């Protein structure tokens, strides 16, 4: 690894100041992507700003139908939280299926959302539920946050502080995991609020997470697994790699959508 200076600020203000003063700083939360990248000499930040000790960035609360999860809250904490289980069981289920116990007890929701891995689980929940990503500078709607594979609209020095999930009537998530990494080869998050349904797909798109308008229209008209059968799932714009080609992933989108709906319909 290249030489780097490690910082562990106790406040959000101190973290922001350190990021602003450094030549090329990176935020460290769970570190599951950043540290391997540094070990392989693909990144060489002059400074690492560890935000895990900032109390204001951790925790789970529910108020007025809005579920708020702090950025440094781990996947295990989300999975095991009675607040999340009551407000949105599908989100707790999603978090419990990320990686293995070692990953779930270190990885954070903020780090996952900021990294925007095209096969990560949380982006599907953020987009599927129409969540708001809150930073130290602004509130960003899910529709505006993701900006392509491994890319977001976060600016230099901007820190995610929490993610706010609005209440929905029903939600379900199903994924086909890679047997080694547990990353989603395809994951589908379905959320129903009133007569409207949102469907977000992860693991399949060349540009990362996306909404599927055809599935949304069909499920808004008839929220049942059978409604999925009549939807055309195109392979255009889907990933093809050694794990599966675009046609295979298109079929998986249908299968995972039916399973997600079946879990809650």
Automatic annotation (TrEMBL):
Domain of life the protein comes from: Bacteria
UniProt domain FAD-binding PCMH-type: residue ranges: 1-170
Keywords: FAD, Flavoprotein, Oxidoreductase
MF annotations from Gene Ontology: FAD binding; oxidoreductase activity
Pfam families (UniProt xref): FAD_binding_5
Protein name: Carbon-monoxide dehydrogenase medium subunit
Organism annotation: Aliiruegeria haliotis
């Amino acid at each position: 690894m290249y030489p780097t200076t490690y910082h562990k600020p106790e406040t959000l203000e101190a973290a922001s100041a350190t990021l602003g003063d450094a030549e090329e700083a990176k935020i460290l939360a769970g570190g599951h992507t950043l540290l391997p990248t540094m070990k392989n000499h693909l990144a060489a930040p002059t400074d690492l700003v560890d935000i895990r000790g900032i109390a204001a960035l951790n925790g789970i609360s529910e108020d007025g139908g809005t579920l708020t999860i702090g950025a440094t809250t781990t996947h295990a904490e989300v999975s095991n939280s009675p607040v999340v289980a009551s407000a949105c069981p599908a989100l707790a289920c999603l978090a419990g299926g990320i990686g293995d116990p070692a990953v779930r007890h270190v990885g954070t929701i903020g780090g996952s959302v900021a990294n925007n891995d095209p096969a990560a689980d949380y982006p599907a929940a953020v987009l599927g539920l129409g969540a708001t990503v809150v930073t130290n500078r602004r509130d960003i709607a899910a529709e505006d946050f993701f900006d392509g594979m491994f890319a977001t609209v976060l600016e230099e020095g901007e820190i995610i502080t929490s993610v706010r999930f609005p209440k929905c009537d029903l939600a379900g998530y199903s994924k086909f995991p890679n047997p080694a990494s547990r990353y989603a080869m395809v994951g589908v998050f379905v959320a129903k609020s009133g007569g409207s349904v949102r469907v977000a797909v992860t693991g399949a798109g060349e540009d990362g997470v996306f909404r599927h308008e055809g599935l949304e229209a069909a499920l808004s008209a008839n929220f049942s697994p059978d409604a999925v059968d009549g939807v055309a799932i195109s392979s255009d714009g889907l990933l093809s790699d050694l794990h599966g080609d675009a046609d295979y992933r298109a079929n998986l989108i249908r299968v995972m959508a039916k399973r997600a709906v079946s879990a809650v319909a």
